[in-house]
Amino acid sequence: MVFSIASRWIFSRKFINSFDGKVLNLHSGYLPRERGSTIYSKIMNDINVAGVSIHLVTPKIDAGAVLFKKKIVINTRYPTILCHTRSISILAKELFGDLLKSITSNAEVFEESQDIGEGIFMPQPYTKLMGSLIGIGVFAKLIPLLEHLDIQC
Hints:
Low-confidence stretches: 126-136
Strand content: 15-25%
Shape: globular
Structural class: alpha/beta
Strand order of the largest sheet: 1-2-4-5
Distance between the termini: 36 Å
Largest sheet: 4 strands, mixed
Order of helices and strands: EHEEHEEHEEEH
Number of helices: 4
């Protein structure tokens, strides 16, 4: 099994098949509604809901069957990137725990197929030199810096 966290890479069918299709991605969006990177769109449109999903990886962006997902309402009138990042980090830890529990207990996991036409898609803003600007790991490193701005979530 391969586990990807907010990867910006598209995995080939050959790679996915080499792991019997057991390639999972922790996506910082509520699928199928939020494919790609939607955090900036949310902030620009004052959307105060954060979500995280774990899905099977396919060669299409964030299009595989969803195994786990959670969302919460951010309790502020104008959610910031810090508010979304904190919420996504909390949800990601919870979902990863759910995944580990299901693996260790051999629990059956329901695969929710996606209608990729149902959601929105926003490409991630990145360059080959800078790498991804979106990602739980990147944002987690920024949280201490952003906390100095005293933004309330």
